Amino acid sequence: MLYSSKILNEKPLRFSRDGTFKILHLTDIHNVIPEMDKEIMPIECSRDMTKETINVENELIGRTNPDLIVFGGDNISGYREEYTEEYMKKAIDEILEPVRKKGIPLAIVFGNHDSELVNIKPYLERKNQIKIYSGLYSNFVSTENDEKMSGCANNSFPILASGSDDIKFNVYCVDSNDYPRDKKTKKRIPHTGYDNVHEDQIKWYEKRSDELKNMNGGKVVPSILFQHIPVRQEYDLVEESDENNFDMEDGGKFFKIRKDLMEEGEMFEFPSPPEKESGQFDSWVKKGDLKAAFFGHDHVNSFLYTKDGIKLYQTISAGYHSYGNDKHGGRLITINEDSSFTTETLTVKRITEEKFPW
């Protein structure tokens, strides 16, 4: 069976003979070249941060042997003024090396920090970064976009059956963008929080969902989705409290965690969705194909919350060049050909003893 190039990547993904497909989610890698840190911290500290980060990648790739790896955004720390174009390429090449050694297909989404200083460093443009990934790694499956729309690396990756070319499952990768910006100068608009998924991206998702459904005899193709910044529905998990009975503080207010809604994992920091509701989640509910969405952004959160039948997962950070606790790692998602799936948080023990300024 042949499919439009808009539906199938040049390198289609396929369930293994045992009827499983494994995805390793590595998010918030935040890579920084140690040479950049010589004015900020002892360079040996930065080198050890890099060693720990790359060890997380190597360890989890070796432990899980995945069929696809998804970098979940904030893959590099593009808010650092020390970034030159050469450093950017080195930082990307460094986090690609553990993947390249195994030849595993790699997809990415971008985070709010990957190209944060694009207004003064144009080479941080997401489209430029996509070209660097593609040029450095032959099994990089993301593209600039499946069609013209906001953001970059908005892609759909169907997974074919183990014994035929029937589409059995689908993976969406969506750019949650970074910050509201002036269109001409690309400067951030002050006091507007994080940007969100735009209307044209939501329309693309709905169109792609319908295309897949039509190819599947009128039945929705079960799907999961990766993006960096979580949806606002995660706010359901916290409720205002007082200073005598609270789990966390945010913006001068006190909150309790709705542990009756949090099904597994932990919440160590207040959720950080965009300030405005985009309608993205309602779109997911309307189309009925999405079984789960996986987010990064909030480095130390690892919880699951199910809303209207859609599972919302947070994955802990993989990288040591930004804040976090001692639990660095990723998430393994094992999809079965019958469209069921399991997932687990994986952590990696440290290999250096340097004290990091977390």
Protein architecture, described:
Helices cover 21% and strands 21% of the residues. The chain has a seven-stranded mixed β-sheet with strand order 1-5-6-7-11-13-12. A five-stranded mixed β-sheet has the order 4-3-2-14-15, covered by helices on one side. By secondary structure, it is α/β, with parallel strands linked by helices. The protein is globular. Helix 1 links the parallel strand 2 (20-26) and strand 3. The chain has helices at 43-64, 85-102, 126-136, 199-215, 280-287, and strands spanning 13-14, 20-26, 68-71, 106-108, 155-160, 167-173, 223-226, 238-240, 248-250, 253-257, 290-295, 304-307, 310-314, 329-336, 341-347.
Name the beta content range: 15-25%
SS field, number of helical segments: 5
Largest sheet: 7 strands, mixed
| Secondary structure: number of strands | 15
Distance between the termini: 52 Å
Topology as a string of helices (H) and strands (E): EEHEHEHEEHEEEEHEEEEE
Strand sequence of the main sheet, in spatial order? Answer: 1-5-6-7-11-13-12
Which stretches of 5+ consecutive residues score pLDDT under 50? none
Give the topology, please.
Blueprint (H helix, E strand, L loop, with lengths): L12 E2 L5 E7 L16 H22 L3 E4 L13 H18 L3 E3 L17 H11 L18 E6 L6 E7 L25 H17 L7 E4 L11 E3 L7 E3 L2 E5 L22 H8 L2 E6 L8 E4 L2 E5 L14 E8 L4 E7 L11
Parallel strand pairs: 1-5, 2-3, 3-4, 6-7, 7-11, 11-13
Antiparallel strand pairs: 2-14, 5-6, 8-10, 9-10, 12-13, 14-15
Helix pairs in contact: 1-2, 2-3, 4-5
